[in-house]
Structures are given as structure tokens and as C-alpha cells.
Write a structure and sequence with these properties.
With 291 residues, this protein is an alpha+beta fold. The protein contains 14 helices and five strands. It binds a DNA duplex (15 and 15 nucleotides) through residues 22-23, 127-128, 130-138, 140-141, 175, 179-184, 186, 219, 222-228, 231, 243-249.
Length: 291
DNA sequence: GCGTCCAGGTCTACC
DNA sequence: GGTAGACCTGGACGC
């Protein structure tokens, strides 16, 4: 009998829009079952022992079925709250989107909770894997990281690798085994710095720094530029940056500029009215069809 | 089958 | 502060 746990959710939480908020549900060690609308994720206990868990929405609650019983349930529930953004208050954001008829669906569908990983480190590595490549290559790189460096569960599934595991291999491994290409030295250096304590991405979650300063901190990581930093900022709950990439730009051109290319400043002006929520506003606007 | 282009960009050197 | 050119890889596309 698999142990099961439940989490109460607020009335403005929507499991589907949270899970399918962006591509993260498609990246290992997440597994997304779109037919039954549930996800699996390989969590880790504080001692590093991984276990698989199924997460689904049942009767307006979140049900979590763990692979085995001897787990740290408190951490599992904390991690689940974190990845589903259960504690995010999007009320001020919805007040802004409700002002525009075409964006009223955002509040109506309780959209805007961007799925994230239990650790900022994992989101950081995954974000670097999204830069300058196709989504299929992102999936390959992340899949390789999990498959070749992640600790296995009893059933052979694997957790996302720890910084220690990532620091245990060299640049050549990232290039040849992970297929990280020119990102190879970035991953080797990042893992080394995290293990040495020179960088602690988890502090970004609770940082008192103004967003512009925090973004500068993030950009000190090799491989993290404007897009990556602003994407990470969204995942730690700051939506000041648009995180423009080629996909987002092309969607904007199609939806709001008759398919014609325009500069980034014009896109910024378009979403200026959403203030500190503009990054979330553009993301919801561009992904409306997904929901 | 092969060559080219580009994708959920960033870094470095140079001005 | 701004910009050109280089950078890995895999998949789509044209021929």
C-alpha cells in the first residue's frame, strides 16, 4: 500500500493551469500524464534518498502517492507546495488582468502559477539548458543529466542530480555525455561553486535584494543572461522582467503586431501597465491557447 | 543523403 | 553601454 498524503488548496488554485503553465512538466524528473492530468516527480529525502511520487487533483485537494513509506512526509508536502506554488498570492495580478476583457480568462482559470522544481539549483540548471537551442535539445540535456548523474530510486527512476554529483564530473562529461555543447564548462563551474559555497541559488528565494540587484547576482553565473535571469526571477516569484526569448517574441508578433517583427522596447511598452506583474502578464497572454 | 538554418541566448572582444 | 562574431547540438527543411 503506497502511503498517500493530501494538501488543501485555496479556491483560486487550478491544478491543470499550474501543471501545464510552461514546459517544466515535460522535463525530467517530472513525468506528465496528460490523459489523466497527473504528474510524477522524483523527490529526495533530506538524506538524499530519492523516491517517486504521483501528484494529482482529487476533490479539490492535492493527493500525493509516495513510492514508499519511509519518507520525510513533511519535506514531501513542503516540496509539493513549492513546486505547485500553492502559497503564491496572485490576487493583485488578477486585479490587473481583470481590467482587460481579453485577459479575464486568467483569473477565471486561476492561471499564472508557474510550475517549478523543489530547488532553485535545479531550476537554474534547467534554465541554462533552455538557452540557444530547440526544446527537444533541452529535453535531451535535462534527461541526460538525470539519467547519468541522478541517484536511482528502488524502481530505477532517478532524481535530479545534486550539485555534488554534478561537481564530480568534468567538462568533457558534460560535452560528450550530456550533449551540453558550449554549456559544458558552465555546468562544471556552477556545480563546483555551489559545492564550495561560493554560490547558493536557494538564497534567491528569500533575498531582500531589489530585483535589479538580484538579477545582477544571477547573471554572474556563466550561461545566465537576460532571458535566463528573468526566467529564474519568475520562478522565485518576481515578475518584473519579461524573459523574452525567440518563442515569446514570435508569439507577441503574431498576436499583437500583425505578425510583424518589432523591437523589445515596444513589447515592454505594451505590458508596462502590469507593473511588477508584467512578466507574468506576457506569459499568460502568450500561452492563452494552451488552456 | 547532404547542406543549411535556427531554436525558449550568452560570452568575449572590441569600440 | 552597445555590437559583431563565435559557440554545441539536433531537427526541420530544401534540394
Amino acid at each position: 500500500m503506497r502511503p498517500e498524503f493530501y494538501l488543501e488548496v485555496s479556491s483560486d488554485f487550478n491544478f491543470k493551469t499550474a501543471v501545464y503553465s510552461h514546459g517544466w512538466c515535460d522535463l525530467a524528473p517530472f513525468r506528465f500524464d496528460i490523459d489523466n492530468w497527473r504528474i510524477n516527480y522524483v523527490f529526495s529525502d533530506p538524506d538524499g534518498r530519492p523516491f517517486d511520487a504521483l501528484i494529482e487533483s482529487v476533490d479539490a485537494r492535492i493527493r500525493i502517492l509516495a513510492e514508499r513509506g519511509d519518507i520525510d512526509a513533511e519535506k514531501l508536502l513542503r516540496d509539493t507546495r513549492h513546486i505547485l506554488r500553492l502559497d503564491d498570492d496572485l490576487t493583485p495580478f488578477y486585479r490587473l488582468t481583470d481590467r482587460e476583457k481579453r485577459l479575464r480568462w486568467v483569473c477565471a482559470m486561476s492561471a499564472g502559477r508557474l510550475l517549478r522544481s523543489p530547488s532553485v539549483f535545479e531550476d537554474l540548471v534547467k534554465t541554462i539548458c533552455t538557452t540557444n537551442c530547440s526544446w527537444s535539445l533541452t529535453k535531451i540535456m535535462v534527461g541526460n543529466l538525470v539519467e547519468k548523474l541522478g541517484t536511482p530510486t528502488a524502481n530505477g527512476l532517478r532524481a535530479f542530480p545534486t550539485a555534488d554529483a554534478m561537481a564530480s564530473v568534468d567538462e568533457g562529461f558534460y560535452r560528450n555525455e550530456i550533449k551540453a555543447g558550449y554549456r559544458a564548462p558552465y555546468f562544471a563551474e556552477l556545480a563546483r561553486k555551489v559545492v564550495n559555497g561560493d554560490v547558493d541559488p536557494e538564497t534567491w528565494l528569500v533575498s531582500d535584494l531589489p530585483t535589479t540587484e538580484l538579477k545582477k547576482e544571477m547573471k554572474k553565473i556563466k550561461g545566465v543572461g537576460d532571458y535566463a535571469a528573468e526566467n529564474l526571477l519568475k520562478l522565485v516569484g518576481r515578475y518584473d522582467g519579461l524573459a523574452l526569448d525567440s518563442w515569446l517574441r514570435s508569439q507577441f508578433y503574431k498576436k499583437h503586431n500583425r505578425g510583424e517583427v518589432c523591437d523589445d522596447k515596444s513589447i515592454a511598452v505594451f505590458y508596462e501597465k502590469f507593473g511588477r506583474w508584467r512578466g507574468l502578464a506576457i506569459w499568460c497572454d502568450m500561452t492563452e491557447k494552451w488552456h
